[in-house]
Each structure stands twice: as structure tokens, then as C-alpha cells.
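--- STAGE predict ---
source: upstream dedup step, 1 unique chain passed
mode: sequence only
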Amino acid sequence: MTVEYDRRGPVAVVTVDRPERRNAIDDATAEALGDAWERFDGDDDALVGVLTGSEGTFSAGADLKEMDLQDRPEGWLGFTRTRVSKPTIAAIEGHCVAGGLEMALWCDLRVASESATFGCFERRFGVPLVDGGTQRLPRVVGLGRALELILTGRELAPETAKEWGLVNRLTPEGEALETAVEMAELVAGFPQETVRTDRAAVYDGLGSTLEQGLATEGWHGSRALETAVEGADRFAGGEGRGGEGVPDEE
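--- STAGE serialize ---
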């Protein structure tokens, strides 16, 4: 098995396990990744997904020794043209480069350790970004920074990645997965209907005018009114006063 799917309570951990190739993705692994995320989306008890790599490396991207990836509708790497209905977090140690960076960008949030290395290293070999990097990277870090990474193939240190907003949380080496799981458990502890409708509103509103975006937000929010009423009743009953249940700023 080159991809492992493990449940930690409400959190599903998807692990690329090809350490002998720095967790690079061949076609069999791409297919297994697609299956894993399909399984996650259909797993009612899995509320948040975490993507990581084994033995201290996230992923070096496509396996350029095998060069057997297929241009499937779901993406060359098996899932990067899809969208699951629940939140996802990348837990990054070591190399997160080329297609590995594109996989991390597919996730909603990114937790990286101080050992992490980022970059569009495929630039050096004439391999195009075809798993969402040209579209997601500018949305995360801005146009100028994205073009710098894409055009120069430069290495990006984890501290700079945090400064740019590519990384949401930085941890000591070896702690990215546990921190990502803790973050996932936090998200899983909230009322899930509004977690999902608010997340969907963000993605569905990208590229819209403000007027269109507000209409999109309103439509998604209207689907969660029952949950909102229940939450208001809990607050009126004394729950959550004084910021209780809200995480401290990191």
C-alpha cells in the first residue's frame, strides 16, 4: 500500500507512503490518493481530513523516474481537480515541492515543521504545473509571490512560507502531523453544518464580484439556519461566554 487511510476519531489521516522515492507520486499512488479522498468524503464519521507523507517527507511531487501518470479527470495526481465537502489540512515535514506543493495547496490549511522545504522545483526540469499550482498558489500568496516561485523555481524556507501565508502554522521538526490533527480536532468539534456551508461559500465566491459573492454567502448561510438557531439557544443558556471554546492566538 502506497497510501494509508487511518482514522483518529473524527479525523482521517491520508499518508503517502513511498519514502524510498521521497513520497513521489506514480500512477498507482495517484489512483490510491483519489480513492482515499473519495473514501473520506463518503465517511460520515470523518469530519476533517489530514494529508501527510511518511518518514519526514511530505512529497517530492510526480515520480519523474516512472513518468507513468495519466491525465485523469480528477487530476494527474489523482485528486487535485476534485473538491471534497469537508475541511482538509496538510501536515508537512521535509520536501513539499513540485506536485507535492500542489497537493498541499489543494488542502484548506497547511501546517509545516521547521524542516519543511517549499518550491516549484519542476521548473528546473521543464515539467509544467498541471495539478492546480498556477491557480491555487496566486490565490494563497498573491500574484507576484506566486509568479516568483513558479518562474524561478526558487526554494522557499518555512519561515518565509509562514510570512507569505502559504503556511498557517509552523511547528518544531517532527510535530507537524500532531499539530495538524489537533487543529483538525478543533474544527471537528464545531457544528459541522455551518463549518461546511461557510467553507463552501468561500470557495464558491472566489472570482465573483462582491454583489455575487454576498448572494452566494446568503444562499449557503440559509441552508444552516436551523443550526444557527440551536447555537443561539446554547449561547443564551450560558455556553461560550467570555470566549470559552475559542482557541488562543498562536
